[in-house]
Amino acid sequence: MTALGQAARRRIRPPEPAPRPGGPGHPGLRQLRQRRLRHRHLGRRRPGHPRPGLHPLGLRRLRLRGKIAVLLAAGCALVAVAIGLLVHQQRLEQVADGSRAQALAQLVRVRQVYELTGRVDDVDTEAALDSLSVPEPLRRAAAEGRRTTYLDLSSDHPAVWAARPIGDHVLSVRKPLDEEAREMAEFDRQLMISGAGVVALAALGGALLAGRLSRELRTAAATARRISQGELDARIGGPGPAGGRDEVAELGAAVDTMAATLQGRLEAEQRFTADVAHELRTPLTGLHTAAELLPPGRPSELVRDRVRALCTLTEDLLEVARLDAEVERPQLDVRPLGPLVAGIVRRAGEDVGLTGAEADTPVRTDARRLERVLANLIGNARRHGGGRVEVTVSGCAVTVRDHGDGFPERLLREGPRRFLTGAAERGQGTGLGLTIAFGQAQVIGARVRLRNAPGKGAEAEVLLPAADAPPGPDGH
Fold first, then answer.
1. Which of 122, 206, 246, 307 keeps 20 to 30 A from 256, CA to CA?
2. CA 323 to CA 340: how far, in whole Å?
3. Is 45 a residue whose pLDDT tops 70?
4. In whole angstroms, what is the distance from residue 289 CA to residue 297 CA?
5. Start and end of every Histidine kinase domain (predicted)?
6. Domain-embedded: residue 55
């Protein structure tokens, strides 16, 4: 059957008689109940299990660019299908109306010839008198004295019929619609090609638009990550004003405002720390000198001890301020790691064990700053840990381990924070030791990793750059 016949077929079928209860086609009551229960069971949906075909799993796996392109293409495809169906139906009605009119015109001409000559002119038309191939509905209408037409679109060769009564006979005319069917098929093919082109253009436009949106969002995400890593001067929109008024531009402006506010607050905090340390340094120097002049005794020793603690705290605050300002510049040199660590451990005290002192792996580092890092880690392990402190040299790594309760989970998760020791079980402190160790390690291009040792204890590992390692983007 052709596309024309499938789209415009009109048949009236008599309703089939319902089977009698208890007859061969009538299901029993038990079968009906079983069927209803089965349908209800299939129609139910368990919680947490979406219906098959409705869960957009493939769409959820796509990125934002793909989702926008797919949704825009799907919307355009639906619109194209709807418009195509409307245009197809309108064109089909035009062809049908024109064919009916031509068939009626031929019927009138054939009737006139028949009335004049008494015979049917079937040279140019398929006209006949009392033809057996006339459709039954058309024959009945003509027998009732009506002139009417009939579209036969169900066969492989569609045609339009026209008939009218002449005396006791039925005069009929048949007009083939093969050419119209081919034109209609070509018209439908052009519609499908046009619709596919529109959908492809819509998908391409959606991909381009979504690509721009995706790039802007990725830029915003990358800038937010840079800000979270400490690069507080990172901005999405740059130094100039925002170039757009859409939602993405508003998001970028909001992130830039947040970063500027956060940068201002952190810089104010850093300036306050540096100012306090500088202001305390001079009176503490005088206090330290005065404490040395006190007469010998237990009270004098307590005063000197507290003064030394205040002086150490002030120096630590000044060092943190310099690290925050990023004004520290290392003096890098290639040194064998084993002997270098051996000297640092020897100066740290006799209660520190060393393993791997014979390792002569060359590393590029600043010896003074490395000693500051290891001294702080050893001091932290001695103060907060338990038992003997162990230092191990392996390759380009130096590990400091104690045998205490280990680092608290918050410290491992968030990293060291100034004036925060992490847990009461690790004792009291200012929390500046690990902060300085991390800061000085960053200056010399090293990394510090904290973890809990298997069994019991805490480990701090310092990873140093090898001698042949290329310098980082900042020259370290």
1. 206
2. 24
3. no
4. 17
5. 275-468
6. no
